[in-house]
Fold:
Amino acid sequence: MILAIDVCNEVGSIALLRGDVVLEERPLESTDGFGHILFEAIEGLLADHGVGLDSIELFAAATGPGSFTGARVGLAAAKGLAFALGKPLAGVTNLEALASLGTGPLRAPVFDARRGAVYCAVFAEDLTVVVPMAVCKIEAFAMGGAVRIDSGPLLAGAVGRIAAGRGGVHPALVEATYVRPSDAELLNTSS
Structure:
């Protein structure tokens, strides 16, 4: 069993998988962040499927890019559960998860990074990186022949499916994927 978490954007989701099969994916929405609703949502999902936390063999978390706070909240929750239960953790970027939902030999996942920019990358069909993740104006993103995939779908299920094929590592080895500096870092360097 795999428990996957994605709370890196305005709408997040959690998913329960058996192998690479998504048993259920639930959307999560909260205008004031996910920290206060995440564990209750996980508890409800597991209870509805009669699954205890001790049955989870692999935890998976979206590592970003996206909301700095969201990425940290989701990753901290997954790390905490994995540490407490002595289980592995798989980190998957949101762009990789979005690319896995596309078709074609080259896939260009794109989603809003705010401030008139997008997070973007190009992946091959097997999800190897062809053009590394970046944040830029959409006009500056050279997709080549890649099929553009815009955000919109829930991603925890895709994160879990990728994790099922990849396996996990010790939770301490999984880090957030920010792509650009935080506002605090930008303000600190400009003063």
